[in-house]
Amino acid sequence: MRTEDCTRFLQWALPRLGLRWAGFRKVRKTVCKRISARMRNLGLPDTAAYRAFLEANPAEWPRLDAMCRIPISRFWRDRAVFDALASDVLPNLATAAAQRGQKTFRAWSAGAASGEEPYSLRLAWSLAAEPGFPGLDIEIVATEIDANLLARAEAGLYGRGSLKDLPPELNDGAFRPSNGLFELRDALRRDVSFLNQDIREEMPEGPFDAILCRNLVFTYFDAATQAALLPRLAQRLRPGGALVIGAHERLPDPAPGFAPWDGPKEIYRFSPS
User: Fold this and answer.
1) Domain of 180: which CATH number?
2) C-alpha neighbours within 13 Å on the C-beta side of residue 220
3) Number of domain units in the chain
4) Do 190 and 259 lie in a common domain?
5) Residue environment code for 113-130, b if the CB has 16+ CB neighbours within 10 A, otherwise e
6) Global pTM exceeds 0.85
7) 86 and 60 share a domain?
8) Smallest Cα–Cα separation from 87: which of 133, 116, 117, 129?
9) Dihedral, CA atoms, 243, 248, 249, 253, nearest 10 degrees?
10) 249 assigned to some structural domain
């Protein structure tokens, strides 16, 4: 399949899935390869034939939606963000939680892929807040639509490449070798739970002190979907809580209640009126 044919097909199909073409420009080759393989399996000669197949078979649309998922993840991805979480955001949020008398700090990682993000958050907590708040536990809820990725996340096994951005002080004690891979230690994994959810359809119950929604809603979903989901995210954040988005994302305008946190532009403080 030629690149231009796939581009035209995606520009037609993505809006029908509530997705935006702009989010797929850099990753279209991955999606196009999946679509090409699907067309071969169906015996379809070109994208025009696949388009006709979709129009005649509504059950094919969820399969196409699945082919458009881009699970790119590694520990401490976007280092400046996690450095800021560890040095500033988490200690501030933990202080506020302790002052409210909370026993548990709650966070949500949306679109958790194979677990690197929620586990990075747990590692940041061990570095930034755990020593100073021994009476404050942490609970991280991680959601992901792909059941296969969830299985990998729950196993907690990673190749060396997934760990390359971790600060050395975290890398050294957090993992143990396991058959050529690196297994996250049980003491860090037990505070993270995983749910198989499509954020467009359901979300975990709040309130949360922090929500990480990076490289998902505000990259791939269309403007209407973003505008519909942001208030639902806000409903699950405590006043004063933090929302973290991706490095190349921006919140819809308007985004009532959200103001930039001092530091990386990807972190927002939520202060409802």
Assistant:
1) 3.40.50.150
2) 23
3) 2
4) yes
5) bbbbbbbbbbbbbbbbbb
6) yes
7) no
8) 129
9) 120
10) yes
The answer to whether 68 and 103 are in contact (CB under 8 A) is: no
User: How far is C-alpha 63 from the geometric centre of its chain's CA atoms?
Assistant: 20
| Per-residue tokens: 143 | 């959601």
* Domain annotation covers residue 72: no
What is the extent of the structural domain holding 32?
A: 3-67
Domain co-membership, 106 together with 187: yes
Write out the two tokens for 38: 């699907």
For residue 184, what are the β-bridge partners? 175
What's the number of CA atoms in the CB half-sphere (13 Å) around residue 15? 6
Residue indicated by tokens 């966070």? 107
Residue where a domain terminates, one of 67, 102, 120? 67
Same structural domain, 35 and 95: no
pLDDT in tens for each of the 273 residues of the chain? Answer: 888 999 999 999 999 999 999 999 889 999 999 999 999 999 999 999 999 999 999 999 999 999 999 888 899 999 999 999 999 999 999 999 999 999 999 999 999 999 999 999 999 999 889 999 999 999 999 999 999 999 999 999 999 999 999 988 888 789 999 999 999 999 999 999 999 999 999 999 999 999 999 999 999 999 999 999 999 999 999 999 999 999 999 999 999 999 999 888 999 999 997
Burial of 7 (0-12, 13-18, 19+ CB in 10 A): middle
- Residue 117 shares a structural domain with residue 39: no
CB 67 within 8 A of CB 37: no
| DSSP H/E element including 99 | helix 90-99
